[in-house]
Model the fold of this input.
Amino acid sequence: MAYEFKIVRDVQWSDTDMAGIMHFSNFFRFMEAAEHAFFRSLGFSIHTTQPERVGWPRVHADCDFSHPLRFEDSVEVHLLVRRKTEKSLVYSFIFRKLNGDAPREVARGSLAVACVKRDEEGRLKGVPIPREIADRIEVAPE
Amino acid sequence: MAYEFKIVRDVQWSDTDMAGIMHFSNFFRFMEAAEHAFFRSLGFSIHTTQPERVGWPRVHADCDFSHPLRFEDSVEVHLLVRRKTEKSLVYSFIFRKLNGDAPREVARGSLAVACVKRDEEGRLKGVPIPREIADRIEVAPE
Amino acid sequence: MAYEFKIVRDVQWSDTDMAGIMHFSNFFRFMEAAEHAFFRSLGFSIHTTQPERVGWPRVHADCDFSHPLRFEDSVEVHLLVRRKTEKSLVYSFIFRKLNGDAPREVARGSLAVACVKRDEEGRLKGVPIPREIADRIEVAPE
Amino acid sequence: MAYEFKIVRDVQWSDTDMAGIMHFSNFFRFMEAAEHAFFRSLGFSIHTTQPERVGWPRVHADCDFSHPLRFEDSVEVHLLVRRKTEKSLVYSFIFRKLNGDAPREVARGSLAVACVKRDEEGRLKGVPIPREIADRIEVAPE
Done:
C-alpha cells in the first residue's frame, strides 16, 4: 500500500508567461502529472489498464502560491493521499524548488477526484473505487 | 465603480483532453481572462497602462467542478469582487454553460491576487493598490 | 460553396511566454480555431455533426513568423482553402494584427489535413471526404 | 563542437486532446524543449547565461505527422543542426516513439531561429551569433 509519490519536473519555456514565471495554471498540470505517476507506481495506468475502466474527473482543485517558479527551475511535486472514501480520493501536493541554495517550498495545493463510469447514455456516474485500486492506496499519516 | 464583469468564451479543440472535456487547468485560464477583461472595462490594461506599473501575482486559486464543458460549448465567466484590502483583491467566478436547454452552472472558483512591484533587485514586494485602480473597484454585495 | 473564413482572436496572458510575446505554438492553435470556425460557417461541427463522423488529423503544419504578437493584441486569422483532393484538404492562414497604426501581417502558415475514419480495430484510415462536405468547399482563386 | 542532441519526453494527459492523441501544437513545444536542452548540453542556458544575452525568436516552424502519440507514450526528440549562418540556425527534429514493439518514427519537423538583441527602443534586431556559442555548434553531416 502507498500514500505518497514524488516526481521532479523542469520548467519549460512554454510553461512561462510574460511575467517571466511559470503560469499558475501549470501548477495544476504538474499536480495531475504526479497523480498519474502515482498510479503508475501502483501498477495501473490512469487510462488504459485500470480495473473496470473507471475515470477520475476532478471535483475540486486549489493551490496556494508562495514563490514563483522560473524557466529551468527544477521542482519536486510531492503527492500525499489525504482522504479516501468509497467513491473519491483527495490528494495534497507540496511543490519544492530543488535548484538554488536549498530546496524551498514554493506552492501547496490539492485535488479531489471522483471515481466514475459512463452509463449507457454516456453520462458519468459515481461508482465505488475498484477493489484492486482501493487496496493499494492508503491515507498518509498526519 | 464596478464589482463584476462577464465574458463569454467558446471551448476550443485545444482546450479539451482525451476524456473529451475541457481540461480542468483551462478553467483557471478562463478566470484570468475574465480578470483581465474586467480591468480593461475599468480603463486599465493589466499590463501596460496601469498606474505605477504594478503586477498582480496569484496568491491562491481554487475551483469546484460540477459539470464538464465540451468542445464548442459556450461558457459565461462571471467575475465578482469578493474582497478588497490595501494590497490585494479576491475574485470569485461562476461558470455558466450557455448552450443547451438552459444556462447551467458548471463550475465556481476564486482567485486571490496581490498587488506588487519589483524592487531594485528584481524581487516582488507587496504594495498598496494604486489609488486610481482602488477607486474604481468595489466589493460585490452579498 | 466557400473557400475562406476569418476569425479574430485576442492574445491572452496565458498565450504569452517569458519573452513577452505569444508563444509560437499558439499560432497553430489559432489556425485550428479558424479551421473549426470555417466548418461551422458551412453548417458542420468538426466533431459532432459531420456526415459519416469522419476525423481530420493533421498531416502537416508550418508557419513563418515575421512580427511578434503581444498580450491584448487583436489578430485576424484568415483561412483560405488551397488544395482539395479526394481525401485531404490544405489550408493557408494569414495572421494580421488589427490594433496599432494599421493592420499588419505578422505570420503566414498552412495546415494539411486528411479525412479519416476508424476501422473496427480503432486504426485511422484515409477515406474520401463525405460528399456533403466536399460540395461546400472550393479552392480559393490565386 | 556538437551538432545533435536527444531528449525523451512522456506524453502527459494535458498534452492530449479529445481525439485521444497528443495535440499537434505540442510537437512544437517538444522541439523547443530539445533545442533548450541542446543549449544546456553546450554549457549555456538559452535564457540566463548566454554571452551577450541574445534571444532566439522563431522565424519558421514546420512538422510532418505520420503517426499519433498517445497518453503515456515515451517519445525521443532527436535534434540535428541543419544550417548555421552568421545570424541564424536551422534545426531538424525526428520524433521516435520508444514504447511498443520497436522504436517508430512518428513525426519530423524543423525550426529556424534568428539570433537577436533588443535595441534601445526595445525592438528586436538580428545580430551575429556570439562567438562562444557559434564555436560550439556545427552542422550535422548529411
